[in-house]
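In the design runs reported in the main text, the only information available to the sequence generator was the tokenized backbone. The following block is the verbatim input for one such run; it is reproduced so that readers can re-run the procedure and compare outputs position by position.
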């Protein structure tokens, strides 16, 4: 199967014919893996037009090189340029290189996420004192997300990574009843419109999702990321509860990848495969991202476990 075929099988709650698909929301270890770094927006802003074209081509090539080296099924354009036009040009560059071999993903989410410390009290007051105005703003935010999704789909993405975080380790930042009022309707409409654009949808949120798991599934998203073990979320239990309704992505522990031994990482990667693979509908990946500072050898140890044990069909010689 092609990388794209594996991803589509998982999104459709099927088993690939060969190996479990993998991807990351972001891959931040390119310098450690390949000796190359992603372009930062200031590099592009000060470049001449011809130099900017060269840098964006280089950025697209790096995304593809990472995917080929790590056997990703989805190339996520979420690390590098931050200007929307430059992101779109990176997507176009990737698509020119890979054709139809991979799915390409972009970050798009207009729903309410956990507010910052500075905005927590003002948001609480708005919920209590002026919910109608807040809801109008939430509708507008989703409208803008849908417009962005349409532009990104035209450029070549197939997957919307919806990365508004909803949960702390102790549970969602809104009670389930408030979440149903201020998040679920907007998330559901966002997913429906993205589906109309032909996009697969991945809902990411860290933290303890269990009190709102039913609402996340109800949204109609194709997949749920990251099934956070550091918040006590059990992949096997989530698979039992909703694995016939939504694909699952995760959940190799980032604390082990960051500060554990290679042996710790191997054991946890084996657990993730054992809990997530049965029946399909599963992407093997970290419980967040391979972030800067994570030892590359730990991440590669987890990926090697997938290469050894992540097979649905006969493993090639």
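Verbatim output:
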């Amino acid at each position: 199967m092609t990388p794209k075929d594996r991803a589509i099988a998982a999104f459709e709650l099927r088993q690939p014919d060969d190996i479990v698909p993998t991807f990351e929301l972001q891959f931040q270890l390119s310098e450690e893996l390949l000796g190359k770094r992603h372009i930062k927006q200031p590099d592009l802003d000060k470049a001449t037009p011809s130099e900017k074209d060269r840098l964006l081509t280089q950025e697209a090539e790096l995304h593809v090189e990472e995917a080929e080296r790590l056997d990703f099924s989805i190339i996520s354009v979420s690390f590098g340029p931050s200007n929307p036009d430059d992101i779109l040009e990176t997507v176009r560059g990737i698509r020119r290189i890979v054709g139809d071999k991979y799915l390409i993903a972009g970050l798009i989410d207009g729903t309410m996420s956990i507010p910052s410390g500075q905005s927590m009290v003002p948001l609480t007051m708005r919920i209590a004192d002026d919910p109608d105005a807040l809801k109008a703003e939430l509708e507008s935010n989703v409208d803008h997300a849908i417009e962005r999704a349409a532009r990104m789909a035209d450029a070549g993405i197939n997957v919307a990574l919806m990365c508004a975080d909803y949960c702390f380790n102790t549970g969602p930042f809104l009670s389930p009843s408030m979440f149903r009022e201020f998040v679920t309707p907007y998330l559901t409409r966002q997913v429906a419109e993205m589906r109309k654009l032909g996009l697969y949808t991945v809902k990411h949120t860290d933290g303890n999702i269990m009190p709102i798991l039913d609402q996340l599934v109800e949204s109609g998203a194709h997949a749920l990321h990251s099934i956070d073990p550091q918040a006590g979320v059990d992949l096997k239990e989530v698979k039992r509860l909703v694995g016939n309704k939504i694909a699952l992505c995760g959940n190799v522990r980032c604390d082990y990848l960051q500060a554990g031994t290679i042996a710790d990482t191997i054991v946890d990667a084996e657990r993730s495969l054992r809990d997530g693979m049965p029946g399909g509908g599963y992407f093997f990946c970290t419980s967040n991202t391979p972030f800067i500072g994570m030892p590359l050898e730990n991440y590669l140890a987890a990926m090697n476990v997938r290469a050894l044990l992540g097979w649905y069909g006969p493993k090639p010689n």
